[in-house]
Amino acid sequence: MPTNTNGPAETLGPTQRPRPGRGWTRRLAETPEIGVITACIAVFLGVWMDKHRFADPGNLSEMSRNLAEFGILALGESLVILTGGIDLSVGALAALSGVFSAWLFVQAGLPLVLCVLLTLLLCAAVGAMHGLFVTRLNVPPFVITLVTFTAARGAAEAITHSVPISISGQAFMDLSQRSVLGIPLPALVFVLVAVAAWFFLERMYLGRQTYAVGGNAEAARLAGVDVGRRVIWTYVTSAVLAGVVGILIAGRLGLGDPSVANGYELDAIAAAVIGGVSLLGGQGRVIGIVAGSVLLVIINDALIVLNVSPYYQQIVLGAVLGVAITIDRVRAKRLGRARRPVRARAGRATRPPAEAAPEDSPGELRTPTR
Fold this sequence. Notes:
Helix content is 71%, strand content 2%. It contains 15 helices and four strands. The protein has helices spanning 22-30, 32-50, 57-82, 90-106, 112-136, 141-160, 170-177, 185-203, 205-215, 217-222, 227-253, 264-274, 286-305, 310-350, 353-356, and strands at residues 165-166, 179-180, 183-184, 255-256. The strands form two sheets. A two-stranded antiparallel ribbon has the order 1-4. A hairpin with a 2-residue loop joins strand 2 and strand 3. Helix 2 packs parallel to helix 13 (286-305), helix 3 (57-82) packs across helix 12 and helix 3 (57-82) crosses helix 13.
């Protein structure tokens, strides 16, 4: 195979290594999680230096509960975004889940375990409906999830007649208010969900197929990936996790309130994008989603501790989301410009033109169908 010894370092073959330090610098530049984690530490320390009660155990415990709610929603939302979709119904579905589970527990008198299972089954059915509409009828994800956003809020209002359902059973409230070894139970649930999502996306073939669908659905289909099934699975998971959040909120408040989780879908999208999940799909990691959720919770709690008006809190949240989207787009363009010339030079230098075409062909993606 001919080589070009006078070409740049990238074209000298697979055995040549870059100069010391260059690899780490490029990895650092291409890893969005570093910036988010640094921002989390900087914001936390900055607020703590001004208000020492920010790090009090009671405040940290409340922040961990908020983190569980935002983080679990963000993980489910991110799975949908990774496939190139969007789910605007997670906040409304969380409110409906809290109301429905409270109604089953208080009005129907069902056991707690059965209430939770029936609520999650309802959410799974809604998620499956989203996936089927998107994959079978080609309905835009924005449209079908917006329909559910409206219908779920209306259903929650209809069940309660706009009067929250008071939960008197301690077992239900323990789902959110109980602690294990000093750690709130919702925070432990969030950790378990994050670990499961990380294992699925980064250690399983099905997770790689999910990335492939978001990167190029047609190429993934030609490679043997069941695109429809992967998309439906992400919507089902997002809806089920929204149901989990709704149950946790109901347990924390002791109420099945149809007005809760208002705007949570925007918080979930913001946490995902801040953590490096591309809105175009196919890019993002669990560690970034977790870091984005942590940063969002720290900022929200910091604004409360600093006595900032709720109106300005929404402005700050919008500004943070806008900055995250801008950084995501600028970074994507820079990486795209940096990789295209290198790939072209490498193709000319390391193999003849007849062999260069298959490099970018969809057939190179060989992922098992099951």
